[in-house]
Amino acid sequence: MPGEDAGDDRTDERYQDLVDELVGAAGVTPPRGGGGFGRSALRFQGRIFAMLVRGRLVVKLPAERVGELIEAGDGVRFDANKGTPMKEWLSLDPDSGRDWLELAREALDFARSR
């Protein structure tokens, strides 16, 4: 049975490249692995800022930025299966041309600003 972060091999590799690039930054910790929510998540000082969920990149950004990206057709608000989309979380459309690393860096900058 696929896990929360299940995707195809290309998606998994793309996310792993992103992890490898960001994990050396101050305060950033790699995914914990194992089971449960957030096992694929990159964290800044313990707080999730990017993760792979159901084969989609999910990032935490300012609500206004999430709205802009949705209006541009790049994704939807992330819903952690609780029925309520989260205003500061974007689930990137797999067909979006947005650069994953760029979005993850933007999310990391947002995490640092909080």
Topology of this protein?
Elements: H1 9-22, E1 28-29, E2 42-44, E3 47-53, E4 56-60, H2 63-71, E5 75-77, E6 89-92, H3 100-112
Antiparallel strand pairs: 1-2, 2-3, 3-4, 4-6, 5-6
Helix pairs in contact: 1-3
Q: Give the helix tally.
A: 3
Largest sheet: number of strands, sense, barrel closure? 6 strands, antiparallel
Q: Terminal Cα separation, in Å?
A: 36 Å
> How are helices and strands ordered from N to C?
HEEEEHEEH
What is the count of β-strands?
6
In what range is the share of β-strand residues? 15-25%
The secondary structure category is: alpha+beta
Apparent shape: globular
What is the number of independent domains? 1
**Overall radius of gyration:** 13 Å
Low-confidence stretches: none
Helical proportion? Answer: 25-40%
Mean pLDDT: 92
Major sheet: arrangement of strands: 1-2-3-4-6-5
Task: Provide a concise account of the structure shown.
The protein has three helices and six strands. It has 114 residues and is of the alpha+beta class.
Mind explaining what this structure looks like?
Helix content is 32%, strand content 21%. By secondary structure, the protein is of the alpha+beta class. It has one domain. A six-stranded antiparallel β-sheet has the order 1-2-3-4-6-5, covered by helices on one side. β3 (47-53) and β4 (56-60) form a beta hairpin. The chain is globular.
